[in-house]
Write a structure and sequence with these properties.
The chain has two domains: 2-166, Fructose-1,6-Bisphosphatase, Chain A, domain 1, CATH 3.30.540.10; 175-279, D-Maltodextrin-Binding Protein, domain 2, CATH 3.40.190.80. The protein is globular and about 50 Å long. The N and C termini lie far apart (46 Å). By secondary structure, it is an alpha+beta fold. It has seven helices and 16 strands.
Length: 283
């Protein structure tokens, strides 16, 4: 375990309220209102804790880390949901798990390596699915990036918005016209089928961006800031919040098997099909 010293935050200090400053949410509150309030408050809690200093532990590797802010933000969300959505289940990156007829999938700090390193590309993210354990259709996704004060909210049947402003429909584009965003953990470079499939897709794109936060990347795809999202074996909490936004603006998603891995791709229909074909070696 290591301690990350206090630092000058890369976000406005007014974005760091206490845990008790959550809006007055009730059982009658709409799911979208609840999701927006929870990610905003969790993100601001994490931001405040980051400015005060953190305790950081490794999980599976030196780059796969968890901080006390991750745990506190997840606990805050779980506690609030237990009070206003007691029949719903939860599934959190930091271990929260409870059964229910629907599931709130929680990523309290997505991009923790960026977060603890003082980089701005991290967020708090939530998805709601209509089945147990994260199964079923995704109802909505909510993503809050405290460092830019951007709140993304929407889903397949809830028109996505950024800070309350509706996002435009996603224009169809070809892969060679747009940037692809992805990630490959360094040790996985030794897996030739994973590496080569990814390289083929990257080679067909206009550019490549590796941001280190799946939800921020997917929100950027939904907004047209980035072109297409391609990851292998992402966990549900990295995929569901942002893919809901992409679907809501008219994009498409696809999940397919190749080389012993489960690939996830999202973006404009043509680019998604071309990225998939490239991974499969068909392009």
């Amino acid at each position: 375990m290591k301690h990350v010293s206090p630092s000058t935050p890369a976000y406005p200090t007014e974005l760091s309220p206490t845990e008790n400053e959550l809006p007055d949410l009730r059982a009658a509150s709409p799911d979208a209102e609840i999701a927006a309030a929870l990610v905003r408050t969790a993100g601001r809690l994490a931001a405040r804790m980051r400015s005060a200093g953190l305790l950081v532990e490794e999980k599976t590797s030196i780059s796969d880390v968890v901080s006390d802010a991750d745990k506190a933000a997840e606990a805050l969300i779980v506690d609030r949901l237990a009070g206003i959505r007691p029949d719903d289940g939860v599934l959190g990156e930091e271990g929260a798990a409870a059964p229910g007829r629907r599931t709130w999938v929680i990523d309290p700090v997505d991009g923790t390596y960026n977060f603890v390193s003082g980089l701005p590309a991290w967020c708090s993210a939530l998805a709601l699915t209509d089945g147990p354990e994260g199964a079923g259709a995704t109802v909505l996704g909510a993503i809050y990036q405290a460092t830019t004060d951007e709140l993304w909210l929407g889903g397949p049947h809830l028109p996505p918005s950024l800070n309350g402003v509706p996002l435009p429909a996603l224009a169809d584009r070809e892969l060679h016209e747009i940037a692809i965003t992805t990630y490959l953990h360094p040790p996985r470079l030794l897996d030739p089928r994973l590496r080569d499939g990814l390289v083929r897709a990257i080679a067909g794109a206009a550019s490549v961006r590796i941001i280190g936060s799946g939800s921020i990347e997917l929100a950027a795809v939904a907004a047209g800031r980035l072109g297409v999202w391609l990851h292998a074996d992402p966990p549900l909490w990295d995929w569901l919040p942002g893919s809901a936004l992409v679907l809501g603006v008219g994009g498409v998603t696809d999940i397919f098997e190749y080389g012993g891995h489960r690939w996830h791709v999202a973006g404009p229909p043509t680019a998604v099909a071309q990225a998939k074909a490239a991974v499969l070696g068909l392009g």
